[in-house]
Design a protein that fits this description.
505 residues, alpha/beta, eight-stranded mixed sheet, 18 helices
Length: 505
């Protein structure tokens, strides 16, 4: 790479231009496939320029919107800026931006909440519509035109393959030592031409370190030097620590009974404070030589790599706090041989999750008496973020764990309810529910026995008598006894909260 530019290819260097000039090449009303996954590796400059262009057009009475497809959530410079400019017609497959969330819930922006492993297949099938532009951040371009991926891969391979035109942001803030950390697999296909994916261990490399793109498809290259959005994680609170403790005790119990090997099985962890508390617990715990097959590498997983507890981590992106990002960039040579970043159609692939026997650990909004889980909607209709990859892992995991504090809003909401107000994961895919109160192992239990476990071990004491009362009356008065419910009051707790601000009578 050159000393002043990371665009080493002569032909592509001729296409370097400003973010404003590049944004002007995106057709009004088109779909744009953008890089980015949990605030890592998203384009930093062109989305802001596109938002300004849309705002100026709106002021002139000729406003327009675009479809925005990504890997997962991005950052204020992308989701936030375009939503603020009223520039997004349709968003998929995941978001966490407050402005976007408000517009989605007000009915002003359409949103398709998609299992992350399904997106690439949907785009190749064509029923999401036509992909006009790929807008992808990379960390460099080699002399022969290969693209060095950035801090996330997500759906970038698919965007580059399917889009009519490509705009590249080359971000020199990203460490040049990312080169070689990625594993881009080009062997996927649609039926009937599919073949088994040749991956049997989390550390296997089955692809190449670079993204490929015909140079004639590239219409613009924009050079940037801007950090990823790295939000600090809160210190683990007492509830998170207790949840982590219950889960670690369970894992030790399973090892003791021969149902898990001494070094467990590959772990997958969602993002957040509870997840980091669990990872911190694993780092301090008795298990050695762990592996991870997951979506994102966050602070706790980086700490486990640093300590040596984790031998290898496979993911599609980073999700690091500022301190952790600084540590990673300063010590990347110590991490590079133990981290593999893959396209999300591989990191989240159900076939691979099942084959590897992943232990899947994800957060939720609420669970009901029988183990159905809502991980996306508040009070049944307001989307929070999205299902993300939790379904990819939970449905196919060796053990699927769902974790949550037993209450929210200072006790006004119970996370354990008679019936969930929205179902993302059915009782068939939920093996273990954990709150700070305890752990309910639901494997091998019929519905009424599942209810007993959840009430006794997961519900908060303030709500346990109410759940017990509902369950006993449902046992006596339900028209069916397999999964007893009183349909006229199954969602009454949610109705009570919406009317009075608390689920308590």
């Amino acid at each position: 790479m050159g000393s002043r530019t990371r665009v080493a290819n002569r032909d592509l260097r001729r296409k370097v231009m400003s973010a404003e000039a590049a944004a002007a090449l995106i057709p009004a009303g088109s779909n744009v496939g953008m890089s980015g996954f949990t605030g890592a590796g998203y384009p930093k400059a062109v989305p802001l320029a596109l938002a300004r262009r849309i705002a100026e057009a709106s002021a002139a009475g000729t406003g327009f919107r675009v479809g925005v497809w990504t890997g997962a959530s991005t950052a204020p410079e992308l989701d936030g800026a375009l939503a603020e400019a009223d520039g997004i017609e349709l968003r998929l497959p995941y978001q966490s931006d407050p402005v976007s969330r408000q517009k989605i819930n007000s009915g002003h922006m359409e949103y398709i909440d998609v299992h992350l492993s399904h997106v690439a297949q949907m785009v190749w099938q064509g029923f999401l519509g036509h992909l006009g532009t790929a807008l992808v951040e990379i960390s460099g371009i080699t002399e022969d035109g290969r693209l060095v991926p950035s801090s996330s891969i997500g759906n970038n391979k698919t965007w580059l393959d399917r889009a009519d035109q490509v705009i590249l942001e080359v971000n020199s803030w990203q460490s040049a030592e990312l080169e070689g950390m990625h594993d881009i697999y080009y062997g996927t296909a649609l039926p009937p031409d599919r073949r088994p994916i040749p991956l049997t261990r989390p550390g296997d490399r089955i692809g190449v370190p670079y993204l490929a793109c015909p140079p004639e498809k590239v219409v613009a290259v924009v050079e940037t030097d801007a950090p990823d959005r790295n939000s600090p994680f809160k210190e683990a609170d007492e509830a998170s620590k207790r949840i982590a403790g219950h889960l670690l005790d369970f894992l030790q119990h399973e090892v003791g009974h021969g149902r898990l090997p001494a070094n467990l099985l590959p772990i997958q962890s969602g993002v957040g404070n509870i997840a980091n508390a669990v990872l911190d617990g694993l780092d301090a715990g008795p298990f050695e030589d762990l592996t991870a097959y997951t979506e994102v590498i966050q602070d706790g997983m980086l700490g486990m790599l640093r300590s040596g507890k984790l031998s290898v981590a496979s993911a599609t992106a980073f999700s690091l706090s500022p301190d952790a990002a600084e540590d990673f960039n300063a010590n990347i040579s110590a991490y590079r041989d133990r981290i593999i970043l893959r396209p999300q159609e591989i990191s989240n692939h159900p076939e691979l999750v099942r084959r590897l026997g992943v232990l899947a650990m994800n957060g939720i909004i609420e669970a009901d008496l029988y183990g159905n889980v809502n991980s996306t909607h508040l009070m049944g209709s307001r989307i929070q973020n999205g299902i993300g990859g939790s379904g990819d892992f939970a449905r196919n995991a060796y053990i699927s764990f769902f974790m949550t504090p037993s209450t929210a809003k200072d006790g006004a909401i119970s996370s354990i309810v008679p019936m969930v107000s929205h179902v993302d994961h059915t009782e068939h895919d939920v093996h273990v529910v954990v709150t700070e109160q305890g752990l309910a192992d639901l494997r091998g239990l019929a519905p009424r026995r599942r209810a007993r476990q959840i009430i006794d071990h997961c519900a908060h004491p303030d709500y346990r008598p109410m759940l017990e009362d509902y369950h006993q009356r449902a046992l006596a008065g339900s028209p069916g006894r397999h999964t007893p419910h009183l349909i006229d009051e199954a969602l009454s707790w949610h109705t009570r909260y919406l009317g009075g601000g608390t689920m308590k009578p």
